[in-house]
Write a structure and sequence with these properties.
Helix 3 runs antiparallel to helix 4. The longest helix is centred in the N-terminal third of the chain and has 11 residues. Helix 6 links the parallel strand 4 and strand 5. 34% of the residues are buried. Strands 5-4-1-6-7 form a five-stranded parallel sheet, sandwiched between helices. It is α/β, with parallel strands linked by helices. It is globular, with a radius of gyration of 18 Å. The protein has two domains: 124 residues, Rossmann fold (3-Layer(aba) Sandwich); 65 residues. 43% of the residues lie in helices and 15% in strands.
C-alpha cells in the first residue's frame, strides 16, 4: 500500500541544463572545459551538500583560477539554467495531490539558489514539503539524507515510492528501504505508480 510519493526535482519536475548559463556569454570551448574537463558536476555537488558559493569561488581561485569567469557566469545566471517544467510533470503532481497520497520532494540543490525552483516549475509549490540537500548539509546518494527524510516526515519507506533520474540515487533510495524507481518521463512514472496501486487517471 503506497501512501507517499517522494520526487526528485531537477530533471524530474524542472528541467535543468547548466549550459544555458553560458549560451552567448562564454566561448563553447571554455564552456566545455569548465563543464566536462574540469568536472563541474562534481564541483557543483559540493554546493548541493552545503558549501556556500562564496567558499566555492575561493577554492576554485586556489585550484583552477582559469575557470573563475565560468563560475561567475553560472552563479549570476543560475535562473537561466532552469528551462521550465519537465513535460507532463505538472499534470502528474496535480493528479497525485488529487489521489490523496502524501507528496514530498527530495532534491540535491544549493540552499542559495533553491528559491529559483518554484518560479521555473510552479508545481513544486504544490508539494507538501521539500528536503533540500544544501539546507541540511548532505546530498544524495549519501544514506544520511534518506534517514533524515524518513525521520523528518515520519515515513514508512516500504510504503513510499521515491523517483529520481539518477541511477545512483535510486540505488541509495532502495538501500534505504524505499520503493525506488528511475525517472525517465512523467508518463513512465505515472505507469510505475499505477502499477503500484496509486489511483491516477490515464493520460
Amino acid at each position: 500500500m503506497i501512501d507517499t510519493v517522494v520526487l526528485d526535482l531537477g530533471n524530474v519536475l524542472v528541467r535543468w541544463d547548466p549550459r544555458r548559463a553560458f549560451a552567448g556569454r562564454l566561448p563553447a570551448r571554455d564552456t566545455e572545459a569548465f563543464l566536462v574537463d574540469f568536472d563541474f558536476m562534481a564541483f557543483n555537488h559540493q554546493q548541493d551538500a552545503g558549501r556556500p558559493w562564496a567558499d566555492a569561488r575561493v577554492d576554485l581561485a586556489a585550484s583552477a583560477p582559469e575557470h573563475l569567469p565560468a563560475l561567475d557566469l553560472y552563479v549570476e545566471h543560475s535562473a537561466d539554467t532552469l528551462a521550465g517544467p519537465v513535460p507532463g510533470s505538472a499534470e502528474l503532481v496535480h493528479d497525485l495531490r488529487a489521489s490523496g497520497v502524501r507528496l514530498l520532494g527530495l532534491t540535491n540543490w544549493s540552499a542559495e539558489t533553491f528559491h529559483l525552483a518554484e518560479t521555473a516549475a510552479p508545481a513544486i509549490g504544490l508539494l507538501e514539503d521539500v528536503l533540500v540537500s544544501g539546507e541540511v548539509g548532505v546530498a544524495k546518494p549519501d544514506p544520511r539524507i534518506f534517514a533524515l527524510l524518513t525521520q523528518r516526515f515520519g515515513l514508512r519507506p516500504e510504503r513510499a515510492v521515491f523517483a529520481d533520474d539518477s541511477a545512483a540515487n535510486v540505488a541509495a533510495g532502495s538501500a534505504a528501504g524505499y520503493d525506488a524507481v528511475l525517472f525517465t518521463t512523467a508518463d513512465a512514472l505515472r505507469a510505475d505508480l499505477a502499477a503500484r496501486g496509486v489511483a491516477l487517471p490515464r493520460t
